[in-house]
Design a protein that fits this description.
The chain is of the alpha/beta class. The chain has helices at 16-27, 42-47, 49-67, 84-108, 160-163, 180-191, 211-223, 313-328, 357-362, 379-382, 411-423, 428-433; strands at 7-12, 32-36, 112-115, 118-122, 125-128, 131-140, 144-146, 172-176, 195-200, 227-230, 234-240, 243-248, 253-256, 259-261, 265-267, 300-302, 342-344, 350-354, 367-374, 388-395, 401-407. The protein contains twelve helices and 21 strands. Helix 1 (16-27) runs parallel beside helix 8 and helix 3 runs antiparallel to helix 4.
Length: 453
């Protein structure tokens, strides 16, 4: 490692991937600095996965209280109330705690944290404020930022960033979008008693998920009071006192207290000066890298959301591990993007890993499909009209399980274990020979015997 520069590695961005790369590289003896302009932990810790999951817990607590009546608990409705400001305050305290943990982790690893906005003066120099820092390697790990479509009245729209700090809940809300963030926030708002409408321009939300999962989730969300409107878009938004009039492409109008856009995210590369150095950006604005996170500029690498790979925290963490090994370890290591499990914390939850039925057929597999739909045991006494779905996509020739999909309580927790089996190449016969845990919903994955297709 060279001694004629300030650092061996400067990382721009202290999100999940950047922090992991910093810590692992410092542990290998590298002199590492991280530049961050906002908050340690990036989107996930501050305005993403962590606070979102806390809000999901909070919004689902109302159902748990109602369900308790079926188990003998007296639940007087007139004595139950919800305090939004307390939830936000408790969430803020937890995020501050996590920010502190990230700071201590970096300090304990010997990583220098530089606060401020970075730009690249050349292939080895990062400028922050009035100071310049040099490094043998520079990694861009700046993540992504919400995008709001350019419609009249877009200044009235909130994104997920602002939703975590709402001063108060509205009586009605419009959620605009059809991906993870949209369906999760629609569930959060509806669970907290907000009259919620979700708008999506396509025929069905959650594009890229298994079609059975998408259709089943739509049915269950409607049961919970979310007004799902597909095949429609926002044409304009007009402010009226404390409310908004939202005109839609189908000619209808909504009157609402809040409009949230969850309409996509873009790579956050503003002001970095990458193109001036010859770093290529794709048509979608992401930093172009090869399979080893290398840009066309030899000293500059990039990872995480900014390069357009799956926008999932564990993906960025794994990338950080691989890149650290390549830069300061044995120079080896590859990312494997196959069988990445994921969860959508809508209500009920979605958990999925592997190929969808459509993907498997498109890839030329001859399939056997196993599908089970049932009422979870909890709701036999709660009386709640909520059902679960489980599905296995199996290669008919090899018996290998190509995909596993679930909609229901704790789907994410269950799918994590199933992901290990799929990564190991498990067959349906091995699923069948596995003893189930009774009584659980998860046992359904090892008791589905007859294919439905």
């Amino acid at each position: 490692m060279s001694d004629n520069q300030d650092f061996d590695l400067i990382i721009v961005g202290a999100g999940s991937g950047g922090v992991r790369l910093a810590r692992m590289s410092a542990a290998k003896g590298a002199r590492v600095a991280v530049v961050e302009s906002r908050y340690l932990g990036g989107t996930c810790v501050n305005v993403g996965c962590v606070p979102k999951k806390l809000f999901v817990y909070g919004s689902h607590a109302g159902e748990d209280i109602e369900d308790a009546a079926g188990y003998g608990w007296n639940v007087p409705g007139d004595q139950i109330s919800f305090d939004w400001t307390r939830l936000v305050a408790n969430k803020n305290a937890e995020i501050e705690r996590l920010n502190g943990i990230y700071g201590r982790m970096l300090a304990n690893a010997g990583v220098t944290v530089i606060e401020g906005t970075a730009s690249l003066a050349d292939a080895h120099t990062v400028v922050v404020g009035e100071r310049s820092y040099t490094a043998k390697h520079i990694t861009i790990a700046t993540g992504s930022w919400p995008v709001v479509p350019d419609v009249p009245g877009k200044e009235c729209v909130l994104t997920s960033n602002e939703m975590f700090y709402l001063p108060q809940l509205p009586r009605q809300a419009v959620v605009w979008g059809g991906g993870y963030i949209a369906v999760e926030f629609a569930g959060i708002l509806a669970g907290l008693g907000v009259e919620t409408t979700l708008l999506y321009r396509g025929d069905l939300f959650l594009r890229g998920f298994d079609d059975d999962v998408r259709e089943f989730t739509a049915t269950e969300m409607r049961k919970k009071g979310v007004d799902l409107r597909f095949g429609v878009n926002i044409e304009s938004i007009e402010s009226e006192d404390t409310h908004y009039n939202v005109d839609l492409t189908d000619g209808s109008r909504l009157h609402t207290g809040l409009v949230m856009a969850a309409t996509g995210r873009r790579a956050l590369v503003d002001g970095l000066g990458l193109e001036g150095l010859g770093v290529q950006l794709s048509a979608s604005g992401h930093v172009v890298v090869d399979d080893h996170f290398q840009t066309v500029v030899p000293s500059i690498t990039a990872l995480g959301d900014v390069i357009g790979t799956p926008q999932l925290t564990p993906v960025a963490l794994a990338q950080g591990m691989v890149l650290s090994r390549r830069l300061f370890g044995d120079g080896q290591g590859e990312m494997d993007y196959a069988c990445i499990p994921t969860a959508v914390f809508c209500q009920p939850n979605i958990g999925t890993v592997g190929l969808t039925e459509a993907e498997a057929r498109e890839a030329g597999h001859k399939l056997r499909i196993y599908r089970s739909e049932f009422k979870p045991m909890k709701h036999t006494l709660s009386g709640r009209d909520e059902r679960s779905l489980m599905k296995l996509v199996v290669d008919a020739d090899t018996d290998r399980v190509l995909g596993a999909h679930m909609v229901g309580p704790d789907a994410g927790e269950i799918t994590q274990g199933i992901a290990v089996a799929l990564k190991a190449g498990a067959t349906k016969a091995q699923f069948d020979s596995t003893i189930g845990i009774h009584p659980t919903s998860a046992e359904e994955f090892v008791t589905m015997r007859e294919p439905v297709a």
